[in-house]
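INFO  loader      accepted 1 record
INFO  loader      residues=526
INFO  predictor   begin
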Amino acid sequence: MAETYDADVVVIGSGAIGANAAYELARLGKSVIILEAGSHIPRWKILENFRNSPRKNNFNDPFPNARWAGTSMDHSYLENTGSFDYRPGMVKVVGGTTWHWVSACWRFLPNDMKMASVYGRGRDWPISYDDLEPWYCRAEEALGVVGDNESDQSGAGGDKPFPPRSKPYPLQPEGTMYFTQRTRKRLEAAGFNFVHEPNARVTAPYDGRPQCCGNNNCMPVCPIGAMYSGIFHVDHAVNAGAKLLTESTAYKLEKGEGNKIVAVHYRKPDGSDHRITARYFIVAAHAFETPKLLLMSDVANSSDQVGRNLMDHTGMGMFYLADEPLWPGRGAQQQGGFANFRDGPHRMHHSAFRHQSSTWVPNYSVAENLISQGIFGKELDRRIRHDAARWVEVVTYLEELPNPANTVRPHTTRRDGLGLPTLTVNYNVSNYIHDAAPHVLSDYDKMVQTMGGTYIRRDNGLQNRDHVMGSVIMGENSKDSVVNSDCRTFDHHNLFLATTGVIPAAATVNPTLTGVSDVPPENVTI
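INFO  predictor   done
INFO  writer      dumping C-alpha cells
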C-alpha cells in the first residue's frame, strides 16, 4: 500500500529564501506547506506602527514581538556568552526580515568562494562562482534586481565588468543622488574606488511592484512595496497552490527508518501541538533558528558542526560633517560605497572590508548628538538644519572566518512563551578582523580629511551587521560540514537547509541574494 503524506514538501520559514523555494516547488506542481512562526501583518499596519513608535532607530519596533515569536532585539530572545554582544535584527513575520533591509543584492566574487585555495585562510566553498552564476541570474530576476552592468564590483577600479555575468541585470540602476555624486567625485580623486550597490528597489513597475519613488524609508519598511521582501514570493507560492500556516512554530523534526525525516512537529500559541508529514523537508529559518531546530531535534549533526562556525560582517563605523551641504535623506537609504579592500593579497593577513555610505534621513541622530552637547531652543533648530545637510555616515563590513567555537545553541534553562528553549550565542571576534582595524581607521581619516570634514564619532569598537552565516556550514566532507553543495544534509537525504547559515566563507557583502541562489530545485528530485 502506497505511503500517504500531508504534502510533498514542508518549508519551515517564509522569509525570502524559504518563500522562493516554496514558490519554485509549487509552480512545478508539488504540494507545499509553509510553516511560519510569526503572524501575517499587512504593510499599512507596519507603517502605522512605525509612525506611532517613539523608537524610530529600532527597526524591529514596528513588527510584532509576540510571546511565541519574539524579535531578536528583545533581550529575552537570546543570551550572549562571548566577548561580543551579538544581537542581529531578525523578525518573525510572514515574509521574514527582508521586510526591513535596504535590499542590497550583491554577488560574491570568485575568490570569495575559494579563500583557502587562494589565500590560505578559512574554507573553500564546495562549488565555484561559475557553478552558481546561472542561479544568481535566476535570483536577480526573481527579486527584480537593478544594477550597473559595467561596474567592476571587486573594488579594484578595473575598466571591465566583474564578476562575470551571463545576463544583464533585469532593470537599470536608479538615478545618482546628489549626495552620491559629490562624495564619489571627491573621494575617487583621493583614490577610493566607488561601486554602485545592486539592489532590489525596482526602477520600473516589476512583478506587481511599483517603481521606487525615493521615500528613504527602506528600513524599517518600504511604504509602497517597490523594495523586494519575502512577502511577494509567499503570495506567489500561495497563488501557485502552496498552503501557508502562520503562528506555527516548528520544534521537532522526527526521524524514521533509514534516517529519513518523516514529520515536523509544531506548536500553536494556544499550546496545542501538531504533526505533519512530507516526502521532503526544507528548513528555511534564519541562521540562528535553523541550527536551533536541528539541535532540538537531534538531527543532521553527525559532524558536530550544527550551530558552529557562526559568522557576521562584524563591522566598524563613523559619522562626520562634510564641509559642504550633501543633502542625505533623499532617495534610497544606500546607493553604493568604496571597496578598495574587498579582494586582494591582504586577505592572507587580515580581513577584507568594504565601506558603505548610508544616506537615510539623519535628523534623529543629528538631534540626539546636539542635545547631548546641551544645545536647545533656536540654536538647536539652526544646528539641526545645518548639520543634517552635511551629515555623513559610513559603515564598514569586515569578513569573519569560520570558527567552530563561535556557536548558537538552544538555551539550557530559559524558555519562551511556548515553553520552547530560547537561544544562547557565543561569539568572539578573531584577530583576522582586529588586524584589519588599523587599515579601516586609516581610510576613515583619509575620507574625513578629503571631505574637509569634522568627526562626530569614530568607532574603534565593533558592531553587528545582521548578516548571519556559517551556522549550518556547507562543504564537501560529511565529517566537517552539515550540508553538501545542493544544501542537502549529509545525514538525511530528504532534508535540505535553505538559509544563509550554509555559507562557508563570509566575504564582505550582504548574503541574501546568494542565499536565494543556493537551492535550485532542478538539482534535486522531489
